[in-house]
Design brief:
Layout: E1 3-4, H1 7-29, E2 34-40, H2 44-59, E3 63-69, H3 75-87, E4 93-96, H4 106-112, H5 124-131, H6 140-150, E5 160-164, H7 171-178, E6 188-192, H8 199-203, E7 208-211, E8 229-232, E9 236-238, E10 241-243, H9 248-251, E11 257-258, H10 265-286
Parallel strand pairs: 1-11, 2-3, 2-4, 5-6, 5-7, 7-8, 8-11
Antiparallel strand pairs: 9-10
Helix pairs in contact: 1-10, 2-10, 6-7, 6-10
The chain binds NADPH dihydro-nicotinamide-adenine-dinucleotide phosphate.
Length: 288
């Protein structure tokens, strides 16, 4: 049976570490790291995500502010709020919860967040720095996956990682992170997507397979090399609850280690948001 990579437990451990660092930072600088969360509309999943993110901030001793705006908020109103938060010295990180209502140009909003406060790591500046090999804020889900592997003593360096999914928030930045010329990275990375041919043959060559697709039970046991490590990023809402992109029951018999859903990658994502917010507060303190 595979080792279960318990993201919930690791998230608790890392949040305790972050809480200690927040307390030390506050003592040294008199400043409490703070995250402003912007939520627009009535998307129930987004409401839960934002609530969980704010609760996590409070748990580690960070400030958190919620800007809960109506569905019909205009782009100009939202941009004005982001500009105000960019200029507010108490706010170190800004989180604009996606998706946004259709009247809003999401890309424009993401780019409006100051590069110094881009704790989601989705802005062009953050992604550009990552592509250049000089990362500042790394997107939270990919960073959480890297930590989940490393903190479970799963080597990444030199190994073949196959990522299924090339989105701007998961697959693409994850590939950039794991191929960095840096400790904890240095992987050989292959990225697959909906147009990839002979997908199963490619995933079967991997030492580490990462599924970030959004389709229940997509990755089957015959697509995984015996002994490989499997990371399931997928969150699919079924009537019976959440499932991932991996056929867990079958794949766990083949893999050497595997993440569960829920309780794998998800809790790590929030933890990395806290990590990034602390980094942002440090950045702000050092550049005052
Ligand atoms: P997107 O829908 O943006 O991207 C999905 C990717 O999967 C695309 O690159 C797409 O290819 C690829 N894909 C779709 N179908 C196939 C197929 N049949 N074969 C191969 N590749 C395929 O999703 P996200 O990256 O935003 O999210 C992926 C999953 O991860 C979702 O379930 C999401 O809910 C979850 N998620 C979980 C998070 C967490 O914290 N645990 C955070 C973020 C996301 P193409 O580019 O060609 O269309």
């Amino acid at each position: 049976m595979a080792l279960i990579l318990d993201g919930k437990k690791l998230a608790q451990t890392m949040q305790a570490e972050i809480a200690a660092e927040v307390a030390k930072f506050a003592q040294q600088t008199g400043v409490r790291p703070g995250l402003a969360a912007v939520l627009v509309g009535e998307n129930s999943a987004s409401q839960v995500y934002v609530r969980n993110k704010r609760a996590a901030c409070q748990k580690v001793g960070m400030e958190s502010w919620l800007y809960d705006l109506p569905e019909l908020t205009t782009q100009a109103q939202l941009l004005e709020l982001v500009q105000r938060l960019n200029a507010d010295a108490n706010v170190h990180g800004i989180l604009v919860q996606l998706p946004l209502p259709k009247q809003i140009d999401e890309a424009a909003l993401v780019q409006a967040v100051s590069p110094e406060k881009d704790v989601d790591g989705f802005g062009v500046y953050s992604l550009g720095l990552l592509a250049m090999g000089k990362p500042r804020f790394l997107p939270c889900t990919p960073l959480g996956i890297q930590q989940l592997l490393l903190r479970n003593n799963i080597a990444i360096e030199g190994r073949h990682v196959v990522i299924v999914g090339r989105s701007n928030i998961v697959g693409k930045p994850l590939a950039l992170i794991l191929m960095q010329k840096a400790a904890g990275a240095n992987a050989t990375v292959t990225v697959c997507h909906s147009k990839s041919e002979r997908l199963g043959e490619i995933t079967k060559q991997a030492d580490i397979v990462i599924a970030a697709i959004g389709q229940t039970h997509f990755l089957k046991a015959d697509m995984v090399r015996p002994g490989a490590v499997v990371v399931d990023v997928g969150i699919n809402r079924l009537p019976g609850g959440l499932t991932g992109d991996v056929d867990f029951a079958a794949v766990e018999k083949v893999a050497s280690a595997i993440t569960p859903v829920p309780g794998g990658v998800g809790p790590m994502t929030i933890t990395m948001l806290l990590h990034n917010t602390l980094q942002a507060a440090r950045f702000h303190a050092n550049n005052r």
